[in-house]
């Protein structure tokens, strides 16, 4: 990585950011702004437009017009493909600049951010661009006197509300298939991660997205996000974030136009280690990365470690050793393994879970406190809490921070019961050298993604989505198109 370039980029002032509506940058309708605080040092990085309900409505109107007049939905899919491919190239060409800007705003370590943010977004845009002209309708197997055609039509105006942990990766998971399908979009970034989404949206315009096809409105969730959820003109709402917000979105859809709502709500993912795992050292190393990279602010983070009792103590010691070796700190240092926690609020939330566990007598094996406070930034030591009981908040609630809850088990049935003992069902992992057990566990764990002998790292070709209270619908893979394409039947008498 080019250290000198990173140093130069981090010193650049960041201009105040306006919305992107109908192809132009616009301030908030009432002139309001809000700070973007850098978690690296707790200082104001720049100011963002504090969106109003009128701003959200203006963006929806622009997206509606752009959809209805066919400037995008009416193009041949191969034409949309060209624009999206060019967009991906522009994002990739500026990957380091975009990654550094994002790190300054959300704190993810640069090594991860570069790959997981601009480069991943570019790959996602390409994947869906290339698929755009390969989606076919169907001819139904009817009797000879009828022809049943099933068209797949773009669903209309999409509202996309995304979080701060991986704004570009998650944003592109929504934008790629929505735009490739021919929909238009109003995107609402998180309060603490807006700048890179605005930056890539501008690159989209440069690549040839017509005005109004992609609009970005910054601001507060309960104002801008709520306006999208309540809009009568938004046809599909896609969301990644907390369950509490997800519930509000469903209620707003029910109160307004019954828009389809797709939710990705995180998890409390079990990482199940059996004594017969092929390589316990490797399992400990990968499990540590699976909870502590990006300071645990990962929706699929393996935040509950379930370990077979016969190897429990050794395994926890190995994992704690990895946690202690991880370099935590300046996220713009390429050697950093875990950067800053996104905000003071997230830091406080993680610390409060640890305080609660400590007060309940659980064992803090390592970490458990804020570090590097003198930087003014928000940093937390990777934390391992052992002897966590199934009913503890730490075993049931999503912390979304660098806190691992460890619980021993004795039998496969007990491991399954513990693994399934939360309201969530997003991700899981099983470590075992027994092939039959691996497949049994994949079947028995209720989650949208079950890793075997690894954690994380699945690619775009497979779907990601939750069951139970982790949500519905899927990001990634060709299945993601289902959210943005309506089926229409033509029944023709011959
Ligand atoms: P959040 O759900 O409040 O925010 C996510 C997005 O929703 C943001 O863009 C936000 O502005 C918007 N939003 C907030 N309130 C809204 C409302 N009333 N109507 C419409 N939109 C609204 O999540 P958060 O406060 O950023 O984080 C809280 C918790 O959410 C975390 O601790 C974590 O458990 C979870 N989370 C999960 C993921 C994930 O990847 N699944 C990502 C971020 C946060």
Q: What does this 3D model show about the protein?
A:
The chain has 494 residues and is α/β, with parallel strands linked by helices. It is 39% helix and 20% strand. The chain is built from 15 helices and 21 strands. It has helices at 3-11, 53-68, 77-93, 95-106, 110-131, 167-181, 195-207, 221-230, 243-255, 280-292, 309-325, 344-359, 393-396, 412-419, 435-444, and strands at 19-21, 24-26, 33-37, 44-49, 138-139, 146-154, 157-161, 184-188, 214-216, 236-240, 260-264, 270-273, 304-308, 363-366, 370-371, 379-380, 383-386, 403-409, 427-431, 449-452, 485-493. The strands form 6 sheets. Strands 14-17-18-13-12-19-20 form a 7-stranded mixed β-sheet, sandwiched between helices. Strands 9-8-7-10-11 form a 5-stranded parallel β-sheet, sandwiched between helices. Helix 6 links the parallel strand 7 (157-161) and strand 8 (184-188). Helix 2 (53-68) runs parallel beside helix 8, helix 4 crosses helix 5 and helix 4 (95-106) packs antiparallel against helix 7 (195-207). The chain is globular. The model has no long low-confidence stretch (mean pLDDT 98). The structure holds nicotinamide-adenine-dinucleotide. Nicotinamide-adenine-dinucleotide binds next to helix 8 and helix 9.
Which helices and strands appear, and what pairs or packs with what?
Blueprint (H helix, E strand, L loop, with lengths): L2 H9 L7 E3 L2 E3 L6 E5 L6 E6 L3 H16 L8 H17 L1 H12 L3 H22 L6 E2 L6 E9 L2 E5 L5 H15 L2 E5 L6 H13 L6 E3 L4 H10 L5 E5 L2 H13 L4 E5 L5 E4 L6 H13 L11 E5 H17 L18 H16 L3 E4 L3 E2 L7 E2 L2 E4 L6 H4 L6 E7 L2 H8 L7 E5 L3 H10 L4 E4 L32 E9 L1
Parallel strand pairs: 7-8, 7-10, 8-9, 10-11, 12-13, 12-19, 13-18, 17-18, 19-20
Antiparallel strand pairs: 1-2, 3-4, 5-6, 6-21, 14-17, 15-16
Helix pairs in contact: 2-8, 3-5, 3-6, 3-7, 4-5, 4-7, 5-6, 10-11
């Amino acid at each position: 990585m080019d250290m000198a370039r990173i140093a130069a980029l981090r010193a650049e002032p960041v201009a105040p950011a306006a919305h992107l509506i109908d192809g132009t940058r616009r301030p908030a309708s009432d002139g309001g702004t809000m700070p973007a605080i850098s978690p690296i040092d707790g200082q104001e990085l720049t100011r963002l437009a504090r969106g109003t309900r009128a701003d959200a409505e203006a963006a929806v109107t622009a997206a509606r017009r752009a959809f209805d007049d066919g400037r995008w939905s009416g193009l041949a899919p191969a034409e949309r493909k060209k624009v999206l491919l060019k967009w991906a190239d522009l994002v990739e060409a500026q990957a380091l600049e975009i990654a550094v800007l994002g790190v300054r705003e959300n704190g993810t370590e640069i090594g991860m951010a570069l790959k997981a943010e601009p480069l991943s977004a570019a790959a996602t845009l390409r994947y869906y661009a290339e698929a755009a002209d390969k989606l076919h309708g169907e001819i139904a197997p009817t009797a000879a006197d009828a022809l049943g055609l099933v068209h797949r039509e773009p669903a209309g105006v999409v509202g996309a509300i995304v979080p701060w942990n991986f704004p570009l990766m998650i944003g592109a998971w929504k934008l790629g298939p929505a735009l490739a399908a021919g929909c238009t979009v109003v995107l609402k970034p998180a309060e603490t991660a807006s700048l890179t989404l605005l930056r890539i949206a501008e690159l989209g315009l440069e690549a040839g997205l017509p005005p109004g096809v992609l609009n970005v409105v910054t601001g507060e969730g309960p104002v801008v996000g709520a306006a999208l959820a309540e809009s009568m003109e938004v046809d599909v709402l896609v969301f990644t974030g907390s369950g509490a917000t997800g519930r509000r979105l469903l209620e707003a859809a029910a109160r307004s136009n019954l828009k389809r709502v797709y939710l990705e709500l995180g998890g409390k993912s079990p990482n199940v280690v059996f004594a017969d795992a092929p390589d316990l050292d490797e399992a400990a190393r990968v499990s540590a990365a699976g909870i502590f990279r990006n300071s645990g602010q990962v929706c699929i983070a393996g935040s509950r470690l379930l370990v077979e009792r016969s190897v429990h103590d050794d395994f926890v010691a190995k994992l704690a050793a990895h946690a202690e070796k991880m370099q935590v700190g300046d996220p713009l240092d390429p050697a950093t393994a875990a950067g800053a926690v996104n905000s003071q609020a997230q830091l406080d939330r993680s610390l409060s879970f640890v305080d609660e566990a400590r007060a309940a007598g659980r064992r803090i094996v390592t970490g458990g406190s804020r570090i590097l406070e003198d930087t003014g930034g928000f940093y937390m030591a990777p934390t391992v809490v052992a002897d966590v009981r199934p009913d503890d908040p730490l075993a049931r609630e999503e912390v979304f921070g660098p806190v691992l809850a460890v619980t021993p088990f004795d039998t496969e049935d007990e491991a399954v019961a513990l693994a399934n003992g939360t309201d969530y069902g997003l991700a899981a992992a099983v470590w075992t050298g027994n092939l039959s057990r691996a497949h049994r566990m994949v079947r028995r764990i209720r989650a949208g993604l079950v890793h075997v002998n690894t954690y994380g790292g699945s690619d775009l070709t497979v779907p990601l989505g939750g069951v139970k209270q982790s949500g519905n619908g899927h990001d990634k893979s060709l299945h993601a198109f289902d959210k943005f394409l309506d089926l229409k039947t033509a029944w023709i008498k011959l």
